[in-house]
Design a protein that fits this description.
Blueprint lengths: L1 H7 L3 H21 L6 H17 L1 H13 L2 H4 L1 H5 L2 H20 L8 H18 L4 H25 L3 H28 L24 H9 L2 H10 L4 H19 L2 H16 L5 H19 L7 H4 L5 H19 L10 H6 L12 H33 L8 H20 L8 H17 L6
Helix pairs in contact: 2-3, 3-4, 4-7, 4-10, 7-9, 8-9, 8-19, 9-21, 10-11, 10-13, 11-13, 11-14, 12-13, 12-14, 12-20, 13-15, 14-15, 14-20, 17-19, 19-20, 19-21, 20-21
């Protein structure tokens, strides 16, 4: 009876669609017998995927985010060849449009972030038009960042309840735990567990493809670490031990990357979490510095020091980073309005004083150089809005409230601080991670501060 009421509750349009999918699945399953005896099972599984997507569209969104953040196609190349990521993205967008049509709704959720996201896209598009290499800039914009923008709007519009928001945060934590465990395993084995390739600089754990750089892997892991810390401290149920174990794996993964930017981000997130429990600023600073020193030693950062560092000078990596920042400021000064072009820092740096086409390892300088003030202003305002509302959401949580929802809201400023500090030393102006956090904050605004929505 409960199942019948659930299906009836879908509404007349969805009932018809539901029945159509079921009928079509039987027809296709019967026809699939001619292909292979097990083929009908695939048809039935696909049909139920469609049904679940119609009933709960956000589940398909969760699947796409899982595929994207966990880099599933790089662990299982066959999935990449099958374009599963593109299929999930198209399915998510299609189900969103379908749900709007069935509900006869043409509006989108309005949050302060939206107009600045649009202005950022305009700034990026303007940089393409004046780029030093229009073709390359256009390809990077349309094949990469536009998908990020669509994902932002899908998250904001498809996650509409507290349970969905908490589920999304837990999903990110689970993905981070998986990636952290993989990084730890790679460091223990001394090689990549899947490909058998040597570690970066022989000791630093990285993955494949987009997360092949250990610094990038560290930034992704920071998306889950502060939440797991708060959840382990505040949760009063049996989940506390689970969250604590996941936290150890994620932090271990960050240490395995030996990323200095990652450790600074972790220290920033740790500081904001501890700040709620420590009243003395002196004690807080001492704790953060002590935490950073211990984590740095545990990660083996000292082993990465070069001969220059041993003499008290900046090592080669730091010198190259500072030179890249200096060159970026010079390029911005030469083209301050629209920049050198979307994703064109490295080629232009090669034509400058740099010996190779290095990226700046700073998301802010990269974006400032590539899009000028037209892109940089919206980018900074987005950071300000997210920081402001993450802090406001955290402060609004009643002191005695516990559980995953309270942990998610309390951890929001720490998560953003960790990723923001790390982004200052990494190149993530145009990747998924920062914009997923913007979207999460916007979602929480709509759920926990609806009166503030315009």
């Amino acid at each position: 009876m409960a199942r019948t009421r659930q299906i009836i509750g879908l509404g007349w349009n969805k009932q018809v669609l539901f029945a159509s999918v079921v009928a079509l699945s039987f027809v296709l399953a019967y026809a699939a017998l001619a292909v292979h005896p097990l083929a009908p099972l695939g048809v039935v599984a696909l049909s139920w995927g469609v049904i679940l997507g119609i009933r709960w569209p956000f589940l398909i969104l969760f699947a796409f985010v899982s595929f994207t953040l966990a880099r599933v196609s790089e662990f299982v190349p066959a999935l990449g060849q099958a374009s599963l990521g593109k299929i999930l993205f198209a399915a998510t967008a299609g189900l969103f449009v379908l749900s709007k049509m069935l509900a006869r709704q043409a509006f989108f959720v309005s949050v302060p972030h939206n107009k600045w996201m649009v202005l950022l896209v305009i700034g990026a598009a303007a940089s393409v038009l004046t780029s030093t290499d229009r073709g390359a800039s256009f390809e990077s914009l349309t094949s990469g960042f536009i998908k990020v923008v669509f994902l932002y709007f899908l998250i904001v519009n498809m996650i509409r309840t507290e349970s969905q928001a908490v589920g999304f945060q837990v999903l990110i934590a689970v993905i981070c735990t998986f990636l952290g465990g993989y990084a730890l395993l790679a460091q223990v084995l001394g090689v990549d567990p899947v490909t058998g390739q040597a570690l970066v600089e022989e000791t630093r754990a990285g993955l494949q493809g987009a997360l092949g750089d250990p610094n990038d892997l560290a930034l992704v892991l920071l998306m889950g670490a502060p939440f797991l810390l708060v959840a382990a401290l505040d949760t009063r149920t049996g989940y506390r031990a689970l969250y604590g174990a996941m936290l150890l794996i994620v932090v271990g993964g960050i240490l395995a990357t030996q990323s200095r930017g990652g450790l600074l981000g972790l220290a920033a997130g740790f500081g904001l979490v501890v700040r709620r429990r420590v009243r003395s600023r002196i004690v807080l600073v001492a704790l953060v510095l002590g935490f950073l020193a211990v984590m740095g030693y545990a990660a083996g950062i000292h082993d990465r020091r070069t001969a220059q560092a041993e003499k008290g000078e900046l090592d080669e990596s730091a010198q190259g980073r500072l030179l890249a920042w200096e060159v970026g400021i010079e390029m911005f000064a030469a083209r301050p309005i629209t920049g050198v072009g979307f994703d064109q820092f490295a080629p232009n740096a090669l034509n400058s004083r740099m010996a190779d086409d290095k990226e700046p390892h700073n998301s802010f300088i990269k974006l400032l150089t590539e899009t000028g003030v037209l892109g940089f202003i919206p980018f900074v305002v987005l950071f300000w809005i997210t920081a402001k509302w993450a802090l406001r959401t955290a402060r609004a949580v009643p002191e005695g409230e516990t559980g995953s929802s309270a942990a998610m809201r309390r951890a929001a400023p720490a998560v953003f601080a960790a990723v923001g500090v790390s982004a200052f030393f990494l190149n993530h102006s145009w990747t998924w991670f920062i914009y997923i956090l913007h979207a999460q904050t916007a979602v929480n605004m709509g759920i926990f501060e609806p009166k503030e929505m315009v």
